Amino acid sequence: MAPTTLQITRRADLLPEAELAALQPILDDIERLKRQRNAVVAAHNYMTPDIYGAAADLTGDSLALAAMAKETEADVIVLAGVHFMAETAKIVNPTKTVLIPDERAGCSLAEGITGDDVRRLKAKYPGVPVVTYVNTTAEVKAETDICCTSGNAVAVVESLGVDRVIFLPDQYLGRYVASQTDVEVILWDGACMVHERFTGREIRNHKARLPGVSVIAHPECPPDVLAEADYVGSTNGIIRWVEDNQPEQVMMITECSMADNVALENPGVEFVRPCNLCPHMKRITLDNIKRSLETMTYEVDVAPDVAGRARRAVERMLEVGRRED
After folding, report:
1. Which domains does the chain show, CATH number per domain?
2. How far is Cα 210 from Cα 256, in angstroms, rounded to an integer?
3. pLDDT confidence tier of residue 322, bands split at 50, 70 and 90
4. Which residues have CB under 8 Å from 45's CB, separation 6+?
5. What pTM, to 2 d.p., does this model score?
């Protein structure tokens, strides 16, 4: 089903009126093309507010986008995010057309491990189940027992009922998971190029300058950063924490645009932004979303044998997510 005007207007109203007026011509073009193609735009929380607030029909973190992509009735999904997210959407929707507006929108985590790497680990630790973060390629997911997101990683690990797991590829998320469970976690030396740049010293300096500020951090950050946080949580967890607690002043230790988007929906909260930009996420723009719909590029496909094996791992993740809701 194509998006309705009500869906778009409700989120677009969060943007400043002058900004929305300037964007209206291209937003109208995108809406026309979506109706023509029976398409939806699915946007990750790290998209800029013009995409997240005005052009998107589906918004959320990796888990939410995977679930919504599976449920949508649209024929075409334009993934406003990075390439592994578009692959995941295609894996759970093999009959739908999935487009990514810029083929260069990658991910340091996904690029830091291959299917061969996973096979070598499995040979080194025979019988140990592999839990893989969704921030990976379809090839890596295909070698995996079950996927996870930052929001359900602990639940996924514990759902297996085993004493130890191989956890890929984010070493910092893996260390955080290990601190929350008795399951032994075998790690890979991967990291997110956005979150690994934060340091505990940087956060302590900010806290000294801004006494009373609430610090909330994503578990992809290094341990010394998490030690300074008042709350550690996934993308969705961070959003809920702000909505529920409404602190006077909050510092979000994650990607810049997420703070912008959460700030739009929480006008009573002052946001301090010691943030880092994801250059890959910022490759997605309103202009190339429009072009993607006009030219039906760039189509994302996954080889059927790889997709079939990866789909089992993703669907097991979604099942754990449903049990956790």
Report:
1. 5-107+281-295 (3.40.50.10800), 109-192+304-324 (3.40.50.10800), 195-272 (3.40.50.10800)
2. 19
3. low
4. 52, 59, 60, 61, 235, 239, 255, 257, 258, 261
5. 0.89
